[in-house]
Amino acid sequence: MSALPARTSSLGPSDAYLERFLALHPKEIDLSLGRVGGLLAALGRPQASMPPAIQIAGTNGKGSTTAFLRAMLEAAGKSVHVYTSPHLVRFHERIRLGSPEGGAFVDEDRLAATFEEVDRVNDGRPITLFEITTAAALLLFARNPADVLLLEVGLGGRYDATNVVTNALAGVITPVSLDHQKFLGDTLSAIAHEKAGILKSLVPAVIARQEQESLAAIEREAARVGSPLAISGQDWQAREERGRLVFEDGDGLLDLPLPRLVGRHQIENAGAAIATLRSLPALGVDAAAIEAGLGTVNWPARMQRIASGALHDLLPQGAELWLDGGHNPDGGRAVASTLAELDERSPKPIVLVVGMLNTKDSDGFLEAFAGLAGRVYTVPIGSSTAALPPEEVVEAAERAGLAAEACGSIEEALSKAARAAGPVAPRVLIIGSLYLAGDALAANGTPPA
């Protein structure tokens, strides 16, 4: 939700606007639709002119589900706008403008010009960074034709600045878990209630696998507003069988290849995307496009294998370098399960390079790797003022039963991992925060494209 500082050597005019926007409101997060609604009204209500939108809310898997949707829609020949957050290296990653050729991140000239316009119309009124930049994104989506808009919720749902769409095609709620309790509530029921705020009357919604407490809250809200639900495990299911992805719903069964994204949890994310597109037959996304999308999908920093670059070259020959932005206990368990699967197929010593924010449950996250990781190196996150000192992450790792050592940088951690390597080169995973993932991609020289 906050803007990460640009990590490139050349800063453009848009970066100056981001700094200016930060000063417009005393709080980084202040959930409300009033300020963004007022600004959008002054801009001529661009949300009424955008392509029909699929909204994606949830705690874990939002970005991956959005990536699957984009890949499948584009494989069907659709032009797709995409809005996601946060970005990894530059703000431009949040806004992808669709085209028949597959779309691209918004360019600097268009972004800066749009920031100038929303800044002028806002005229210094208090508004959060996420709200004013979301208004800019919606303005861009309204002015550039596309078939579909994929709109990922920033935080929560009900009062998130993205929840202003007037032409919703469908909603998606990915797995809900405890995260952002300060803003959404401290129970699964309360958090799921806020996520379910995206549900709209007569607009179909796909619900990924949930804890019963979360599902009950979502079902209550759906009944209140009149949103028809397609629920994982009840109305559809996605599973792995003999190295294939099998999707089944009331319309039949699809026998598909496993998704390109690594990890068993990606089966459910892919299933949510498939169920969404199957609920929208007018889009014309057939089984061939779904299969093609599973093979072309790309989503950086989600069990991403780093095969070259400056960080990769610090490790010994035969080592593997992986990157994931997981940062809460459920995310940690999903990644730990994936690491265990990789280790079963190709055993290597597992080393973690971890940086975390002070708003996250470090103990719960690191417990997922107990008995799996042989060594943990903790690092600072230079792109966030909310980063935990590496020494505090060491303490959390040790409470989880993990051997840990504080380092001053990712580079230092990888160099130490290289020096400590035995006869079998390690499998190294950088994890703990999307901010850290962005730092790593920038340092490696491989930003998202």
TrEMBL record:
Listed pathway(s): Cofactor biosynthesis; tetrahydrofolate biosynthesis; 7,8-dihydrofolate from 2-amino-4-hydroxy-6-hydroxymethyl-7,8-dihydropteridine diphosphate and 4-aminobenzoate: step 2/2; Cofactor biosynthesis; tetrahydrofolylpolyglutamate biosynthesis
InterPro entries: Folylpolyglutamate_synth, Folylpolyglutamate_synth_CS, Mur-like_cat_sf, Mur_ligase_C, Mur_ligase_C_dom_sf, Mur_ligase_cen
PANTHER family the UniProt entry points to: DIHYDROFOLATE SYNTHETASE-RELATED, FOLYLPOLYGLUTAMATE SYNTHASE-RELATED
Domain Mur ligase central positions: 56-276
Single Gene Ontology BP annotation: tetrahydrofolate biosynthetic process
PROSITE patterns attached to this UniProt entry: FOLYLPOLYGLU_SYNT_2
Family: Belongs to the folylpolyglutamate synthase family.
Cofactor: Mg(2+)
Pfam family, one: Mur_ligase_C
Entry GO terms, CC: cytoplasm
Substrates-to-products reaction catalysed: (6S)-5,6,7,8-tetrahydrofolyl-(gamma-L-Glu)(n) + L-glutamate + ATP = (6S)-5,6,7,8-tetrahydrofolyl-(gamma-L-Glu)(n+1) + ADP + phosphate + H(+); 10-formyltetrahydrofolyl-(gamma-L-Glu)(n) + L-glutamate + ATP = 10-formyltetrahydrofolyl-(gamma-L-Glu)(n+1) + ADP + phosphate + H(+); (6R)-5,10-methylenetetrahydrofolyl-(gamma-L-Glu)(n) + L-glutamate + ATP = (6R)-5,10-methylenetetrahydrofolyl-(gamma-L-Glu)(n+1) + ADP + phosphate + H(+); 7,8-dihydropteroate + L-glutamate + ATP = 7,8-dihydrofolate + ADP + phosphate + H(+)
NCBIfam families: folC
Job of this protein: Functions in two distinct reactions of the de novo folate biosynthetic pathway. Catalyzes the addition of a glutamate residue to dihydropteroate (7,8-dihydropteroate or H2Pte) to form dihydrofolate (7,8-dihydrofolate monoglutamate or H2Pte-Glu). Also catalyzes successive additions of L-glutamate to tetrahydrofolate or 10-formyltetrahydrofolate or 5,10-methylenetetrahydrofolate, leading to folylpolyglutamate derivatives.
Residues in Mur ligase C-terminal domain copies: 317-433
One annotated GO molecular function: ATP binding
Name of the molecule in the record: Dihydrofolate synthase/folylpolyglutamate synthase
Enzyme class, spelled out: ligase
Keywords annotated in UniProt: ATP-binding, Folate biosynthesis, Ligase, Magnesium, Metal-binding, Nucleotide-binding
Highest taxon above the source species: Bacteria
UniProt key word tRNA-binding: no
Source organism per UniProt: Hansschlegelia beijingensis
EC number: 6.3.2.12, 6.3.2.17
